[in-house]
């Protein structure tokens, strides 16, 4: 403060003082830079006025003389075209001389001081957008004005003060004359007159002012009026803002129609939300949130450049809709607002990004959304199914993105399943239906649940009554790489590695075994010979060949080697061109299949037969086709196929 009085010229009543060094630097930046977003000056001044009204409202609770005979709280925006200026008048608490000097002559606010600090650290004052975007409080006036006059009277005090500055070196302060006193609309309050630069006269246009108010200050609770009402029509003038923050009203007083209207208005959306959540968090951090989940999926849901669009307010003043740390990316379809009590109003985006309060809010918001979705799944299955259908795949990104929310996410995740009674199932339901001794959650990944359910790889599991989850979202491949188990049950891909099914008896299977005890070893030998023959024949295409219990209907299938990349994952990676497959798959053969049996028998007689070789190649191609891959050599495949068909038809 001492610095503010560096130069002190006494001239009648006038006192001219220099700004604090930091203020001068800031003003220098503000006045000399070009801003991408100068609109914020009005937001800043309106927010100060609204604050001033809030503060007086609060003080009047203790001392009602302060507002005795006053008009209701209001903010007026008055324009004069001739000597172009814009005046913002409020009947808030006002400032006395000392307050004018210290509030408008020093940088008291931590937010602005921090911006300066940040600029200093950068070594140059170049990132002007920072200031343009987040404002510098009162000083933002100088973005559009070359002279600012302030007339203010503190509630409960008799004097009215006049403050004036060109935003360069300092300011002048004195008692206001009668003309100036008339700027005020009450016995207390502040009028700020901006002498608008010639390149900024658009800010005097009614439409322009209304647009900015609507964008930034619509939910400021104090009514904002544009210009004076006509004589005798004072009661009819309508505020240009909504003058009420919907989210500050009690839930019980808000209808779903009102919520929907708000959703349409702020989100510029045309559908109705499928879920509306409105709550106030109290305690360590305080905020109110009003959030919506749309019914329709936004077209750019998967666009990597898409930004999350929660609107952040601080004490009902709009701050930004670009703060992507306010919401996890996997909740990017959630719309609405968060209004914080704890954040400072002026804070740069960089600082907001890493602000611990923002992180706490994000955590609270995430928990709440997940628990509300879970409740929805219990009370409105249809709505939940729609929600899951639209956004389930995005939510699953959270399984690898946010470990701390994984348990809550798993409660709402649904998967296609081979269980006919529960084609969409939760993991908990899956676990409930597990067979005795089953400690594994089996899954298969691919594009389409219907065709996955017919995969040869799961035949053996199904015939043993073991349920398999059919994972059809690309994201499944990614979270399954990270998440190894759920409630101590391991996830296991049925297209990767061996599966031990010995513990689970298949009725047909065990009967057959008992009947053929003696011949079993002969069969085994033949099967070994076939395995060896296939391995030699197909050495280029497969890593190895083995007899498998997982097949019941199909003769063969391909699986990834243990430790290798899962079959479908390999495809996904190939598509994204991030990966050249290096592991060859394993070919599993079904020893109970008539074709395999016959081949085994033929091998035991003459392993070198040409037909056998062709059959081996055809089997391999068949395995590829079943899982939706293309055959290695289509022409050769067609030729072999034709010759087999010909034989089959008989000559
Ligand atoms: P902030 O609002 O973040 O404190 P500003 O630069 O916007 O920073 O304003 C500085 C201070 O000036 C405010 O804290 C307030 O004390 C005072 N002030 C500004 N405008 C008004 C007003 N219209 N009525 C009363 N006090 C005001
Ligand atoms: Mg302010």
Report on the structure:
The protein has a nine-stranded mixed β-sheet with strand order 1-2-7-6-5-8-4-3-9. A hairpin with a 5-residue loop joins strand 10 (273-281) and strand 11. It is α+β, with helices and mostly antiparallel strands and 651 residues long. Helix 10 (356-379) packs across helix 11 (381-395), helix 10 (356-379) runs parallel beside helix 13 (406-412) and helix 19 (520-537) packs across helix 21 (594-605). Helix content is 38%, strand content 18%. The chain is elongated, with a radius of gyration of 37 Å. Residues 1-11 and 509-518 have low confidence and may be disordered. The chain has three domains: 5-226, Heat Shock Protein 90, CATH 3.30.565.10; 246-384, Ribosomal Protein S5, domain 2, CATH 3.30.230.80; 517-553 and 584-650, Four Helix Bundle (Hemerythrin (Met), subunit A) (Up-down Bundle).
């Amino acid at each position: 403060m001492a610095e503010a009085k560096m130069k002190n010229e006494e001239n009648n009543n006038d006192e001219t003082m220099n700004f604090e060094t930091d203020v001068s630097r800031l003003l220098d930046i503000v006045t000399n830079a070009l801003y991408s977003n100068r609109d914020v000056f009005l937001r800043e001044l309106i927010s100060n006025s609204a604050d001033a009204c809030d503060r007086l409202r609060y003080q009047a609770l203790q001392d009602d003389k302060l507002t005795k005979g006053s008009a209701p709280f209001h903010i007026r925006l008055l324009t004069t075209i001739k000597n172009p200026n814009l005046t913002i008048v409020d009947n808030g608490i006002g400032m006395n001389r000392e307050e004018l000097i210290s509030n408008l002559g020093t940088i008291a606010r931590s937010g602005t001081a921090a911006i300066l600090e940040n600029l200093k650290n950068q070594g140059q004052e170049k990132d002007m957008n920072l200031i343009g975007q987040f404002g510098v409080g009162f000083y933002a006036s100088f973005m559009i004005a070359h002279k600012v006059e302030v007339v203010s009277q503190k509630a409960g005090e008799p004097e009215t003060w006049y403050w004036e500055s060109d935003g360069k070196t300092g300011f002048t302060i004195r008692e206001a004359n009668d003309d100036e006193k008339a700027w005020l609309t009450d016995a207390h309050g502040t009028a700020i007159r901006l002498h608008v630069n010639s390149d900024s006269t658009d800010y005097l246009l009614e439409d322009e002012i209304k647009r900015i108010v609507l964008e930034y200050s619509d939910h400021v609770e104090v009514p904002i009026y544009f210009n004076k009402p006509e004589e005798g029509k004072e009661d009819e003038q309508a505020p240009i803002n909504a003058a009420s923050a919907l989210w500050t009203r009690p839930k019980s007083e808000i209808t779903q129609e009102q919520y929907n209207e708000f959703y349409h208005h702020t989100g510029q959306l045309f559908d109705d939300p499928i879920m509306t959540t409105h709550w106030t968090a109290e305690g360590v951090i305080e905020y109110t949130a009003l959030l919506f989940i749309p019914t329709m999926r936004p077209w750019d849901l998967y666009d990597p450049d898409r930004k999350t669009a929660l609107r952040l307010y601080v004490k009902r003043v709009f701050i930004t809709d670009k703060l992507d740390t306010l919401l996890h990316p996997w909740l990017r379809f959630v719309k609405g607002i968060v209004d914080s009590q704890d954040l400072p109003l002026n804070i740069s985006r960089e600082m907001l990004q890493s602000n611990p309060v923002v992180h706490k809010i994000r955590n609270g918001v995430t928990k709440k959304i997940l628990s509300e979705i879970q409740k929805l799944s219990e009370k409105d299955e249809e709505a939940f199914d729609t929600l899951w259908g639209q956004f389930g795949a995005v939510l699953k990104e959270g399984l690898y993105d946010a470990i701390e929310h994984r348990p809550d996410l798993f409660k709402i995740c649904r998967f296609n399943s081979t269980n006919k009674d529960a084609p969409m199932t939760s993991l908990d339901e899956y676990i409930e239906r597990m067979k005795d001794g089953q400690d594994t959650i089996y899954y298969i990944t691919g594009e389409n649940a219907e065709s996955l359910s017919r995969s040869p790889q799961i035949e053996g599991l199904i015939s043993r009554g073991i349920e398999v989850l059919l994972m059809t979202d690309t994201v499944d491949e990614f979270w399954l790489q990270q998440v190894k188990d759920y409630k101590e049950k391991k996830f296991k891909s049925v297209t990767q590695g061996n599966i031990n099914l010995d513990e689970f008896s298949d009725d047909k299977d065990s009967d057959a075994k008992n009947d053929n005890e003696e011949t079993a070893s002969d069969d085994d030998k033949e099967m070994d010979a076939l395995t060896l023959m296939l391995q030699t024949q197909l050495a280029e295409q497969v890593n190895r060949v083995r007899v498998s219990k997982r097949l019941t209907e199909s003769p063969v299938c391909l699986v990834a080697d243990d430790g290798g990349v899962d079959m479908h994952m390999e495809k996904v990676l190939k598509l994204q061109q991030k990966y050249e497959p290096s592991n060859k798959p394993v070919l599993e053969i079904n020893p109970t299949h008539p074709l395999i049996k016959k081949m085994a028998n033929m091998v035991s007689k003459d392993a070198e037969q040409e037909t056998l070789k062709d059959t081996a190649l055809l089997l391999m191609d068949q395995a590829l086709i079943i899982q939706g891959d293309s055959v290695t050599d289509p022409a050769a495949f067609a030729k072999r196929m034709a010759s087999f068909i010909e034989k089959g038809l008989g000559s």
